[in-house]
Structure formats: C-alpha cells, structure tokens
Amino acid sequence: MSFYLSIREVWRNRGRFVLFSLVIALITILVLFVAALGNGLANANRQFIDKLDADLIVLQENVDLNLTSSRITQDKLEDIKSIAGVAEAGLLAFSSATLVFDNGLETLDVSIIGVTPGELGNPSLLEGNPLNNSSANEIIIDNKVADNIGLQVGDQVSLRSIQGEDESFFDLTIAGITDERQFFFASSVIMSLTTWNEVRPQASPAPQSGDVLGNMVAVKLADGVDQSIIEGRLINTIEKIEVADKITVIEAQPGYGPQQATVNAQKGFAYLIGVLVVGGFFQIQTLQKVPQLGMLKAIGTDNRTVGAAALMQIIIVTIIGILIGGIGVFLLYLGIPDSVPLSFNVPTVLTAIGSLLLIGPIGGLVSIRIALKVEPLTAIGLSS
After folding, report:
1. Average model confidence (pLDDT) for the chain?
2. Taking the mean position of all CA atoms in its chain, how far away is CA 153?
3. Positive/negative CA dihedral, 296, 299, 301, 302
4. Domain total for the chain?
5. H-type helices in the chain, by residue range?
6. pTM as predicted
7. Number of neighbours of residue 252 by Cβ within 10 angstroms
8. Is residue 329 located within the same domain as residue 364?
9. What values do phi and psi take at 176, rounded to 5?
10. pLDDT of 329-351, one tens digit each?
11. Residue 50 domain-assigned?
C-alpha cells in the first residue's frame, strides 16, 4: 500500500518531481566532483610514497617528518639494514626539474627521484628494464608522461635544472616505464642516486664529493615482525633519526592536512545543502497535501502506512536524482582536461553515493513528522 501511494503521487506530479530530481542531480554532481577533487589532490601529493613497498619511513630527526628538509646519509642506510627484523631498505632523494622537448611540445615540470638500483624504492615496471647501473644516465618515467608526450623505452629526453646561476641540460635515456606515480603535484622521473646527484638543482654545477645524501630511507620489515618493536630498535640504535609509517609521513607534509581539511569542509557543506534542500522541498510538498493526508487517515489509513509512503517517495526521488547526477558526472568527466586533478575510485564514489542516499531520508524527517501529526478532521475542515 505504501509503495503504491508513493508511486501514484510521483507519477501524478511527475513534472514537479522530475525538476526536484534534477536539483538532487546537481547536488550529486557537486558532491562527486568535490570527492574526486579531494582524492585527486591527495594522489598528486602522495602517490609515489603510497606505492612504495615499505612499512616504515626513516627521516632525520627534528624536521617534523618533512621529506624535503630531511637528510639521511648512506652510512645510516647501512646501519638500518643491519637491524634485526629489517628485510630491505633503500635510500631515496627528491628534487624537481623540467623535461624539455625539441619537437615543439611544452616543457613539463617533474619530480626527480633518486634511488639505488636493485634496492627498495625502485618501482615495478610496465615495460622496459630496471635501473641496473648507478652511473648510467638512465631514467624510469611513469606511463602518464609517456602517453601524454608520446615517449617510449629507448627514447632520449632532455632534463633542465638550475645549477649555480645557469640552466644546465642533461640527456637521459628512458630505460623503463612504470605506472602513474605523482609526487608533490608532478609526475615522477626516477633515476639512480648518482645520476640524481649530478642533475638535481644545486648551488654549483661541480660534482659533489663526500657521502651520498638522500631525504629518507624506505624500510620493509621481515614477515611476522612487530612494527612497533622495529621502530624502537631503529630509534634506540641509530642516532638523530625519526621513524614513522607511510600514512603519518604523508599527512605531515606541508599543506597536505589543510588541503584535505578544506576539501572535506566543502563536502560537508554540500551534504548540508542537500539535507536543507531535500527537507525544504518535501516539507512544502507535505503542507500542500494536508487535506489529502487527512482524507486518507479518515478512511482508516494508519500512520505507519502514511509515514512509509512519504519515506519511499523521498527515497525514489533521491535515487532518480543520483542516477541522473551520476550520468552527468561521467559526461562532464570526459571533457575535463588532464591538468585538473580528479580521481574517481570505487571507495570514493560508493562513500559519496551512500552519503547522498542518506541525506534524502534525513532531510525528509520533518516532512514525515508533519504527515504523521495530521489530524483527519482538522485537515478536511470538519473539526470545530
């Protein structure tokens, strides 16, 4: 009975309900785009670190887990490897530079990442060969750069960096292509630490002497080892280091927390707007049909049926709006340029849709309450 009543009213006033479904569709588009933007911005910051096959990150102490401020020496890497329970460890270094193309394409700012060939930190490859020679001017690029620029394994690219007061250019050969690995809003170009130390921006173009420096050490633990125990061993054995898991390090990077807080606030306001809009529409809709509700109750329809019919009506209209909004998001996404960091994934989309399905009934609680409180005689004008 409840389902019949709700469907009959929606169909009888289909023009009004279609228009309101379009309003819900717009809210759906807003929520899904904000969710995808938040996910895309997070990926642009953290993707490389996220995809590291590491359990712990070791950095210099007193840098607040800031990757670019940390300095870790090769000696400390060897000390870390000697700790019982550490299966693998690799020194990584980060900087930025620019890829320059001679075929008229625009330059591309990239994150250049130094790794030790054969050690932890080297990415898995989609095609090509891993870095084998620490002194070879070979690089690994992610497939986003390869697809957008049209690069293949074996191609040469020119890397521009500022050394001293001048621009320096380095010819590098693409040894392999990995999956997308952004770091600090730029695609990653991965090379040996020796090559990285030569091509990175620095005060002087002269070769650097002394111990090899990196920014962090990625650590993979042996199977079955308690992570907290290894953290304690590292801190107690090796001086002037700080140890944290990947999520903690990512969230500690400058700007990451405020950025995600801003996006989450936008999502919160979008949900609030949705609740208020749904609530306002159905409240007006209920007030307009008070006489009909009174007549239904006068002929014996109980509150349970009336309330269930109102709830089903809200859910039906909300689902239609979400379906229209989902189609709209897909069509809009096809036209969004790659420069906009949008990332749709299953958990993000399901969470957003689940939240949108909830705002309908939540927003309609007031209208349901009004429907339940309608007095039959008063509603049809027979009460004295």
Report:
1. 84
2. 29
3. positive
4. 2
5. 2-12, 14-50, 74-81, 143-149, 193-199, 227-237, 246-252, 256-288, 290-298, 303-335, 346-363, 365-373, 376-379
6. 0.78
7. 17
8. yes
9. -160, 165
10. 888 888 887 777 788 878 878 88
11. no
3-state secondary structure of 270: helix
Whats the size of the chain, residue-wise? Answer: 384
In this structure, are 125 and 27 located in the same domain? no
DSSP 3-23: HHHHHHHHHHTHHHHHHHHHH
DSSP strand pairing (108-115 vs 241-244): unpaired
Structural domain for 347, as ranges: 2-45+257-379
Instruction: Give the list of residues 6+ apart from residue 227 with CB closer than 8 angstroms, or none.
Output: 55, 56, 221, 245
Q: Is the dihedral of CA 162, 164, 167, 169 positive or negative?
A: negative
Report the alpha-carbon distance of residue 288 to residue 301 in Å, rounded. 19
Same domain? For 92 and 173 the reply is yes
pLDDT over threshold 80, residue 207: no
Same domain, 23 and 105: no
**Per-residue pLDDT tens digits for 12-44:** 767 777 888 888 898 888 888 888 888 888 888
Question: Are 338 and 222 part of one and the same domain?
Answer: no
Q: How far apart are the first and last CA of the chain?
A: 31
